[in-house]
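Researcher: Let's do a round of design. I'm pasting the structure tokens now; please hold your answer until I've finished.
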């Protein structure tokens, strides 16, 4: 990879908001998005286990803050450049002891595993927050001083309104463009 111009991002990835349904249903949202952009993408599992839920995750999962939840944390790369840390959170009372709590990638997809466990998709909400990175995020994403992160949180609920999955994606802000789409036929300036 050639050295970028001073001030230019090392790589640039597009992230659609809301997530396209065909991409959401793929084996990996990130890999499907990156491949469609012609990028050499990779991912590796950083952590699978239980951890205390932070305030936002707890609210989305409808549990008390600091309640243990199942966390599945992955690092996403383009070439050798880290671009995102994505963590899936699940209620431990519903999903601890299932294959969602096992350390390997869920095959064929996370969505198929949730369906196999009896959860039909009902709705989702996505929020986007920009902020300075934590020291751990700065190190993991190899951010330069002053670079920020964008946090995308997608909370998914079943047809019965059960909080099934929260996906928190920490994106290196300078390495992403967020494409916003509306329902087909309803785009306006």
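Researcher: That's everything. Go ahead.
Model: Designed sequence:
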């Amino acid at each position: 990879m050639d050295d970028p111009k001073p001030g230019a991002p090392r790589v640039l990835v597009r992230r659609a908001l809301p997530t396209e349904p065909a991409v959401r249903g793929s084996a990996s949202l990130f890999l499907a998005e990156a491949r469609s952009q012609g990028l050499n993408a990779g991912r590796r599992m950083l952590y699978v286990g239980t951890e205390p839920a932070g305030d936002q995750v707890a609210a989305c999962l409808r549990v008390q803050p600091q309640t243990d939840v199942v966390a599945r944390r992955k690092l996403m790369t383009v070439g050798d450049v880290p671009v995102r840390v994505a963590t899936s959170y699940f209620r431990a009372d519903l999903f601890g002891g299932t294959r969602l709590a096992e350390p390997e990638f869920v095959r064929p997809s996370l969505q198929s595993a949730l369906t196999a466990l009896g959860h039909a998709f009902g709705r989702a909400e996505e929020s986007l927050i920009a902020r300075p990175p934590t020291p751990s995020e700065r190190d993991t994403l190899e951010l330069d001083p002053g670079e920020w992160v964008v946090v995308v949180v997608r909370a998914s609920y079943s047809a019965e309104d059960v909080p099934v999955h929260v996906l928190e994606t920490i994106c290196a802000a300078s390495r992403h463009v967020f494409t916003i789409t509306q329902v087909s036929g309803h785009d306006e300036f």
